[in-house]
Design goal:
The protein has one helix and 23 strands. The chain is mainly β. The chain has two domains: 95 residues, no CATH class; 214 residues, Beta Barrel (Porin).
Length: 346
Amino acid sequence: MVGKKLALMTMIVVGMSISAIAEESTAPQDEIILKNGSRIIGTVTASRDGVVTMDTDFAGTLSINSEEIQSIHTEGALVVQMADGHIFRDRPITMEDDLMVVTEGNGDQLSYAVNDILLVNPEPWELGDGYNWSGLVSFAIKAERGNTDTDELDYQLESIWRSLEDRYTIRMDAQQDEANDIKSAENWKIIGKYDYFLDGPYYVGANVSAESDEFADLDLRYYVGPYVGREFYSEPIFSLEGELGLSYVNEDFSTAEDQDYPGANWTVRMSSNYLGGDSRLYLNHDGIWNLDVTSDIILNTTVGLAFPLFGNFEAAAEVLWEYDSGAVEDIEELDETYNFRIGYTW
């Protein structure tokens, strides 16, 4: 009797397993045919910046360059955003010979040029729903013990909230160094910005910045003002944006005479994944020009290379140049810093 029950239970379990496998095998599958003839079966999850992402059972998630693809046929739930703003949801789609064919619910087929596709499965903020939050926090720490006891701590924070219409940005950098319990560096800088995007690549904004550098005799420098910006390029292979504006600048020094003046300020931010491997070359530059004393100019430039470690952690090697032609007496005009950072991105 026990043997019969055990056999019956085994048959039920096997039957359920076979049924589950059958259901999986009949589930809609997407198909990509490569130009070399390879056929990939899975689920297309996204397409952006010339790369199609597909989840497969045999190799996990694949990222396929669109130039290597001959055709795509989808059956699953996709959201396709066109360059003209039109959005297709949950429609079977076929792409072949630079043509995309969408099958509507009534069976009608609509044809579009593949180049007219903006995004596949865009994020909610890219459809006008809320903000995308991205950021970075990183540290550079150095400790030496021996003839000289040295402790150095540099930290950096960047947080950006971006929607289709506007963007909020907060950036902060700070440095604290000691040698034999004697402080050798203590400075910080924080910037807050708001951008409003116009039609096309232009945007307008306003920013406020404050900074202090004890060993440059600077108690506090702050400025506030509007600017006009432009996104020249926005592809991962090369992104570039610049801003130019006017500002009110106020400087308080420990020993030198305090001053305030109208200034022109600018910002350049550039990055590229040209080296591959999810690495990132970047250049960040900003400047302030004293419009009262035109020989007085402040330039800050950072050049670096960031590369992934694991998960969302990354490392970065960078060089920072800080130039102040109006530095007070006995303070060097140019300060050069080399950093190796460990950070977390989101």
